[in-house]
Amino acid sequence: MPVVRDLRVLLRLRNFRRLLAVRILSQAADGVYQVALAAHVVFTPEKQASAGAIASAMAVLLLPYSLIGPFAGVLLDRWPRRQVFLYGNLLRSALACCTALLIIGAAPLWLFYASALCVTAVNRFVLAGLSAVLPRLVDRERLVLANSLSPTAGTLAATAGGGLAFAVRLLVADSDAVVVLLGAALYFASALATLRLATGLLGPDRGTGRAPLRSALAAAAGGLLDGLRHVAEHRSASRALTAMTVIRFCYGALTVMVLMLCRYAWTDSEDDGLALLGLAVVVSGAGFFAAAVLTPWAARRLGRFRWMAVCAGSAAVLEPALGLWFAPAPMLVAAFVLGLITQGTKIATDTVVQTAVDDAYRGRAFSFYDVLFNVAFVAAAAVAALVLPPDGRSVALVIGVAMLYAGVGLYLTHWSRDSDVL
What we know:
Elements: H1 2-12, H2 14-42, H3 51-66, H4 68-76, H5 81-104, H6 109-132, H7 143-171, H8 176-194, H9 213-218, H10 220-233, H11 235-265, H12 270-302, H13 304-323, H14 328-356, H15 359-387, H16 395-416
Helix pairs in contact: 2-7, 2-8, 3-6, 3-15, 4-6, 4-10, 4-15, 5-6, 5-8, 6-15, 7-8, 7-12, 7-14, 10-15, 11-12, 11-14, 11-15, 11-16, 12-13, 12-14, 13-14, 13-16
């Protein structure tokens, strides 16, 4: 099969394998850390978290460092990206250790959030950089497949990390701090893996060397405007980002709904709810893996935008058909389907942005992309907080999300007819 042959070629590329190892370890740590935070905030017995409380936590953790994202892109286009991965992961490892100490010491919640915010803020540099450097290691013909393998492998690693965190927390009582320390160890391992990559290999292609921090920040605002203007000038990239943002919003709203259902509607205990949520995460991860296998073939056969339209249209039909039951079994099937659809759309969007945007602007483009992801997820949590009842069952939310999926599908179908970038 052509996909299998191309996959073998990719895995023979030494530097691609090394970058993939950095991503897998880093995102496995993300999965461990995020589950530890969610369990500590939502599934601790003394905390009776509502949808509003969950939305507030997401806003605290996501919105402030979303503001860092565009400036991270400017710096990624000025700093050696390999060093960003190295020092970023070392810093996250140290900060995660601080978070564990705060949990052990029963520190105030605001201080716990502040520590978590620092860890996830550094994450903006690492994730945006991992996407921005991929075209430097893979030829254009195999870029779609690389975008299937690399980000999806990272997502699966995050899912596996989350599953490991669930297992540790269920097996060991009062183990939130232990789980966070496990994340810290994985961040440190990712930093060590970065040392196998040559310093100048990942760019950026500028002869200015390392810009002083003050000069880089002074140029950030102007550089951001240039980057946004560059993305806006490439209609294929801007329209793909618009569609992906709406799909991310839908996924975020449904994530909050499933979390509330696991916490209050389907189980009688925090541990059972956490175990069911962990199962939903694993099933969604299986959907991500299916998208990695299917998307290269589908995008080659249909074109990137038509494949995205098929994903959105499928979600518009299947999401209400499975979700309106508000029962665990059909909802787990929906988790798989929506994992496949969301990741399939993301793979296609990544490729469109990478091929449409010049390398000198790619860091800024993916930082902006990352900001849209976070803002969409927080906005979805806020809407879910307004719509969801205490037990998480909301027909209005399920129908509203299905209408958004349908709108995106129609938008992409209409635009792809006249697009040269398929």
